[in-house]
């Protein structure tokens, strides 16, 4: 894999059954492959191509991944597939030995992924945008579940954005399964459910992939609202703190409203039968008056909470006011004026504090783990 990742295919043209496909620019190297912007040279149609070398995944696995996504791509919030070219020849002639791989071709989403959007403060303080985006993701996941597909790797990196940022699309069905009851520890630690995280390799006991997806969605909502995940993994002491006293945990760390705290407590539940369903989740988010603390609550909150506010929420608001992001109703003055009054520390110190204490999403682009097949 190291050899492959270091071997850029940029500029290379691959012959496909739909004509020559030119790989124009490498977007990102993930754990299972590399994604390029490419162009069908005959039609000049630009697409995204995930190149998976044979050394990483069998042609059968690529076909499975592609087919699962195809099965649900009719939903407006799931990324569109275009073509699968198995066993494409990608090798150099000459110095390097030739190598083969599968090309998975998708519509190109020019807004990048949701991880980058969150880390670029496109969501801080924007309640309507958060709600709208989250409900789109939830709707995509619900559609998958209704069609018997469980994603298992729901995280901001696997959600793509339209150029204007108004629409999002679930992608990366590399870990998706058609079985609700599974016995495989896979996903990404920050978003991974308790039952999945604590599952031991070889243990035949099964757990619900459906319920695990619900847990991951909870973490996505927190990330949209605060720019942070609650813990880096279930094994981290932060999770024990949450478990010991959930309300205290949220109050000491995040500038989130009581309604959101209560909702998250119904998502991050170890017993899957007590975990909230997607239907209930949708209603609670749709009906929630605010995700954030009020100005008064914030003034009385501990430094870490205000640190998150300054590091993420305030920054999102500033960007909105400066017009970098589309401005909805211009009702953002209140907090802004009084912010220094209520912040006895310098913003720089607070930022430093926040980074030290919390898994700030910016510092944690995570790759999935898969420790057994199932
Ligand atoms: N259709 C697309 N349009 C724009 N960008 C894309 C598209 N598909 C993928 N990307 C970018 O490439 C990244 C990796 O893609 P993807 O998640 O499908 O593969 P991966 O991460 O290698 O797979 P895995 O999660 O199994 O390791 C995404 O996080 C996103 O930034
Ligand atoms: Mg991915």
UniProtKB/TrEMBL annotation:
Domain Protein kinase: 21-291
GO BP terms: signal transduction
Domain of life: Eukaryota
Pfam families: Pkinase
UniProt catalytic activity: L-threonyl-[protein] + ATP = O-phospho-L-threonyl-[protein] + ADP + H(+); L-seryl-[protein] + ATP = O-phospho-L-seryl-[protein] + ADP + H(+)
GO MF terms, alphabetically ordered: ATP binding; protein serine/threonine kinase activity
EC number: 2.7.11.1
SMART domains with a match to the protein in the record: S_TKc
Entry keywords, A to Z: ATP-binding, Kinase, Nucleotide-binding, Serine/threonine-protein kinase, Transferase
Protein's name according to its UniProt entry: non-specific serine/threonine protein kinase
Taxonomic source organism: Thelephora terrestris
